[in-house]
Amino acid sequence: MAVLEVYEAITGYNLASVAEIVRQELDKGTDVSAILNEGLIAAMDDVGSRFSEGELFVPEMLMAAKVMQAGLDVIKPRLLETDIRAKGIIVMGTVQGDLHDIGKNLVMMMLEGGGFEVIDLGVDVEPRKFVAAAKEHGAQVIALSALLTTTMPAMEGTVATLKKEGLDVKIMVGGAPVTRNYANKIGADGYGEDAPGAVLLAREFVD
Ligand code: B1M
Asked: Which of 10, 158, 166, 177 is the most exposed place for a label (fewest CB within 10 A)?
């Protein structure tokens, strides 16, 4: 694997060296999407599977997440160097009860790279906060992330609150347990399968 060292930095919880390892890959000319997909994301998937199998526990997942974030910070400027140009304001957050933010941060980076201004509401965001932020910032798009099956109902509740408010915004949803069918079922305007997909969808919304 071309980015084995990046992968192993995460699975080995190597917080001290991950930034340097990622920088070395960039210096070698390794494609940034390979570092992201085959290195950082693939390693987190492995961590997730091993957690499911009871081989790893929450502290290990948390450590791996910190290492991944440190790796992401290094490639962020490169992710921002995209030629996709779209303009608009997006309010984004992870839904109430859900503390996962790595995917959200990745999607935000890509959206910013796509020329959007992104207002980050963070994690565990209650529905009214999305409404208030959309009004305050004049957002065209609201982006909701959920990583737990147990917080998918909070996503549905947030969509319902936003619709009831009658705001002129498009709502997109995403996150590992979320599907296109689920997005349709809860009345979202669109589903982003991954970070690049979220950028394309946001462009469709504002074009
Ligand atoms: Co959590 N966790 N976690 N966790 N965690 C998962 C999600 C889990 C699948 C692990 C497992 O069992 N295999 C599982 C959920 C099972 C389920 O719901 N069916 C799980 C669990 C159970 C839990 C706890 C309940 C564990 C516990 O306490 N017993 C707990 C819940 C806490 C809470 O939120 N209330 C918990 C806690 C944590 C940590 C805090 C330790 C840590 C989070 C740290 C952080 O985010 N700052 C953590 C981690 C790291 C994971 C895994 C290992 C990795 C998640 C991740 O960052 N993936 C995860 C297993 C896995 O996914 N492999 C797991 C990388 C990230 C880039 O992918 O977020 O999917 P992802 O984002 C993607 C797409 O989904 C998409 O784009 C991104 C890039 O392509 N996307 C969007 C995401 N949002 C989008 C929005 C869009 C469009 C696309 O438009 C708006």
From this structure: 166
Instruction: Name the residue of 100, 104, 111, 173 to mutate for ligand 1: max ligand atoms within 8 A of Cβ.
Output: 100
Domain boundary among 52, 81, 110: 81
Residues 43 and 145 in one domain: no
Low-confidence ranges of the chain (pLDDT < 50): 83-86
Residue linked to tokens 């079922």: 185
Query: For the chain, what percent of residues have pLDDT higher than 70?
Result: 94
Same domain flag for 94 and 194? yes
Domain final residue, candidates 55, 81, 107: 81
Ligand 1, CB within 6 Å, residue ranges: 41, 44-45, 47-48, 51-52, 58, 61-62, 65, 97-104, 106-107, 143-145, 147-150, 172-177, 192, 194-195, 198
Q: What pTM was computed for the model?
A: 0.84
CATH number at residue 201: 3.40.50.280
Instruction: Label each residue of 86-138 as H, E or C.
Output: CCCEEEEEEECCCCCCHHHHHHHHHHHHCCCEEEECCCCECHHHHHHHHHHHC
Can you give 27-67 as a three-state secondary structure string? HHCCCHHHHHHHHHHHHHHHHHHHHHCCCCCHHHHHHHHHH
